[in-house]
Amino acid sequence: MVEPAPSHGPRTVVSPAKTLFGVGVSEQVGDYAARHGETALLVASQEIYDIHGDRIVETLDAAGVETALYTDVRPDPTVENVRDAFAVWEAEGCDVVVTLGGGSSIDVGKSVGILANNAGDIRGFGVDKAGYGGVPNPTPPMIAVNTTAGTGSETTRTAVLSDESTSTKFIIVSENIVPTVAVEDPELTRSLPKSHTAFTGIDAFTHAIEAFTSVKSYSVTDGYARDAMERIVDALPRSWANGDDIEARTEMLIGQFQAGKAFGNSSVALVHGMARPLGAQLHIPHGLANGLILPYVVEFNHVAAQSKYAEVARMLGAADAGDSDRVAARRAGDAVKGLCEEISLTSYLDDFGEVPSREAYLDVVPEMTGDAFDSGSPDNNPRKPTREELEELFVTVYDDALAPDSPRRS
Ligand SMILES: [Fe+2]
């Protein structure tokens, strides 16, 4: 097996046109919205709106921008969410989208933007139907006010939606849906509970490590990914232990932003391919699914991108410069497990989702394996699994991380 070769071929790096960073920057949302429109559609979940909504509506008000509200975004946002939000957009004559929340709100905002400037049903824009150039016209201006650290969706050309009619997720990918302005105010992430600090933080770490080792990785995305991992390894345990540590929260926001730029311009890979069906089966949050799977995929992959996994192991303190890449890379999987343990990741299985019996789980492994392959994500993996190997990985996840008496839960 060979290491993925860096390419110097032509590339397009996407990013929001502007990104605001720092404590208090969310107060500038109104000014930025006023540059782009007169009536904002504010997209949020009710929970997040209750915490931060007033602050955002006030800044829009102060800048003379009217606000229309859609506050019914679900954790795994649905096609219905998008249709309902778009109905508000049309009824209120909106001309700028403001999202408040993490990936779910941002992805609904992007999708409303697609419908505003493109004809058709939102399902038809999925990459499985329309490919990667299937959104012909850019969305209206969009301001993504981020409250998690995080999905990185405020930096990317991707939206993930659930199609409830088929109980599957689909992905929309287009350069035409990158937000215009990303707002990264650490103050807004203080409200994130410990559980979601863990989930969204390990999601960001997974974005960075997958982007770093993807066959689509190259010099620019490697830079983002390295920077992201270094920050997250240090700041995630601190922001998890003390949510009011604003310095750690700031580092996490920067780290997850860099991770978003990394995978948004490289790709995610096998972990995300497996996490979507696993998450759907167990009804667990996306980041938790990633954190459960990640160590085994690292273990599986390490021989195929040895120098990169060696770097990861060194960043995590599991190896040093004196260890060969071969030795260091072999320790990467356990090192990742250690990071998950530091934030008690598997303990959240008690409160989030349902773990089936081993027998019931084994019954759905072939289906999950098929879904993982269909997602296309395994194609970006440095080591391509066979069907058998992928099924085995799902079984390992159960035996080592899901079963109540498994090593990672006891
Ligand atoms: Fe993710």
CATH class (first level) name of the largest domain? Mainly Alpha
CATH superfamily of the largest domain: Dehydroquinate synthase-like - alpha domain
Main sheet: strands, sense, barrel? 6 strands, parallel
Shape descriptor reads globular
Q: In percent terms, what proportion of residues is strand?
A: 5-15%
Bin the helical content. 40-55%
Walkthrough of the structure:
Helix 6 runs antiparallel to helix 7, helix 7 packs antiparallel against helix 8 and helix 9 packs across helix 10. Helix 2 (46-62) links the parallel strand 2 (39-43) and strand 3. It is built from 15 helices and 8 strands. The protein is globular, with a radius of gyration of 20 Å. The strands form 2 sheets. The chain has a 6-stranded parallel sheet with strand order 1-8-5-4-2-3, with helices on both faces. It has a two-stranded antiparallel ribbon with strand order 6-7. It folds into 2 domains: 18-189, Rossmann fold, CATH 3.40.50.1970; 194-402, Up-down Bundle (Dehydroquinate synthase-like, alpha domain), CATH 1.20.1090. The protein is 51% helix and 10% strand. It has 410 residues and is an alpha/beta fold. The structure holds fe (ii) ion. Fe (ii) ion binds next to helix 6.
